[in-house]
Amino acid sequence: MIHVQRRPGLDEQLRHSVEKLAAAVERRDGAPPLSDDALMHLGDPERVHLISTDGSASLTGYAQLSSSAQLNSSTQLSSSAQLNGAAAEVLGDRATVDALLGEVESLAPKLTVWSHGTLSPVAPAAGERGYRTTRILWQLRSPNAEPGPSGRVEVPAGVVIRPFVLGQDEEALLAINRAAFAELPDQGGWTLDDLADRFGASWFDVNGLLVAEQAATAELLGFHWTKVHPDDVGEVYVLAVAPAAQGMQLGRVLLQAGLDHLRQRGTDGVLLYVDDSNRNALHLYERNGFSRYNQDVQLQKD
What we know:
Blueprint: E1 3-7, H1 12-29, H2 36-40, E2 48-53, E3 59-66, H3 73-77, E4 86-91, H4 94-107, E5 111-116, H5 122-128, E6 132-142, E7 159-163, H6 170-180, H7 185-188, H8 192-199, E8 209-214, E9 219-228, E10 234-241, H9 250-264, E11 270-275, H10 279-287, E12 291-301
Parallel strand pairs: 4-5, 10-11
Antiparallel strand pairs: 1-2, 2-3, 3-4, 5-12, 6-11, 6-12, 7-8, 8-9, 9-10
């Protein structure tokens, strides 16, 4: 018997239980079932949290809903409250996912849900409930071997690649991110609070956040934010170039700089995520040794 409960936020013990369950599901499906954003907001009272348990009260699943509207605890716990335009992430086995989807649908008449990895039970469960795929996110991987001389691009004259400076570069980075991902609000809509959340994460390394700067004007032209996972796999976390700097091959220059940094860290290969609609980025990565490895899909039910 599956029991679903709504919570205003998760205490430390429940957060640990969800993280442990997410790790087990990742081993099962070969992909993390929750995004970084969801994991960073397990205790957030402005999001809706649902947990499922079995007859022994053991945690069997978890769902998190976020909305563009700011929510309070009473709204989250009200059975009649509905969240328009909510996005959900769900983890569990097939039966648990189905039960959690049923509960979140009662809260969100227009619901978007992410299914991470081709083996996740979320996509088939959602498909049977009438969802349609609205977005595809590819995971690409590369062994990150040292490129030969013909594979390298020189840094343009007058441009410097340097580490990000905390307390100085935040607004410029957000402006580039906003412009580069204008059509993807979950990425392009980052705020200073979103940056602060990531700066406070255990994996954050300021030396792994590289920016391209116009030396004469100190204007930021792009950035490459890298990440190292606990299993020593590197990640191209975010790579973005300002629209005004297009045509300078800065995307390739920044990609190489970040991959060099990850090699120096001794990483065991590199992964990245790129939207299927971003054909230019897909071509850039595939020309630089990345190949398609896995797939996340976003599904929507009206």
